[in-house]
Amino acid sequence: MKGFSDQNKVNKEPKKSDKKTKVSQEQIISQAFRYHSQGNIKEAAKLYQQFINQGFTDHRVLSNYGVILSNIGKLKEAEISYRKAIEIKPNYAEAHSNLGNILKDLGNLQDAELYTRKAIEINPDYADAHYNLGNILKDLGNLQGAVISYRKAIEINPDFAEAYSNLGNILKDLGNLQDAEISYRKAIAINPDYADAHYNLGNILKDLGNLQEAELSYRKAIELKPNFADAAWNLSHLANTIEEAEERINQCLKIDENHLDAKLTLSALKLH
Q: pLDDT tens across 247-271, in order?
């Protein structure tokens, strides 16, 4: 788990009156971090909340609690937690980056960019922050800037499969299909079980006219993620007969009965 630094040690011996409180704080933090690193999120959250309710302050606790809050969809509460972490430690790159992610999800792209750039200013080798900045710049329509950010993330972390896949998406949007294909294949080489990368590769191969391999890529995406409705939908485009197309569209609708494109296409096929 990120953010498990140990930067709040007290060099002098605490007063006897403060010793019990100090030990209590350290015990709560230690146990909370242990639960969090073990994936016991429920118990970690309880201890983080206990720590906060007792009036203790620690930038690591507030940042980690923000991660939990964001993962369960409590974005505004996560935003508050990250901001408090930054108040305690203004040069805490991770909290700046995480706050940028929350602001992006809340639709505040300009502030999201500012906080993410601040994270990079504090720690220029922070691969995740460069990746997050790429996502923000993409949403802002700055595709060239997004390419630069994704490439920087990959430069720092050559095994960053998500950065390769998202870079491929941008290169595809820019019309650079060959390089997009290379980027997707790199993502898959790093993580062969990356369903989205197989799906994205299928889209590129379809656009390049390599339909047989495109079909294999879509089928692999569905194998890895059986509820991948869009992969099932795109697979229907490669059908050789109307009956086969209907079968694949129905597969898509079994996964997502509200898939609008699939519903409209199936209705049109039934009219013929």
A: 888 888 888 888 888 888 877 776 6
Least confident of 19-28, 132-141, 185-194, 233-242: 19-28
CA 65/CA 153 separation, integer angstroms:
25
Residues listed for the chain: 272
The H-assigned helical ranges of the chain are: 16-37, 41-53, 59-71, 75-88, 93-105, 109-122, 127-139, 143-156, 161-173, 177-190, 195-207, 211-224, 229-236, 242-255, 260-270
42-45 contact pairs (CB < 8 A, 24+): 44/68
pTM: 0.82
Other beta carbons less than 10 A from residue 151's beta carbon: 16
Report the distance separating Cα 74 and Cα 79, nearest Å. 9
Degrees to nearest 5, angle at CA 29 with 26 and 31: 105
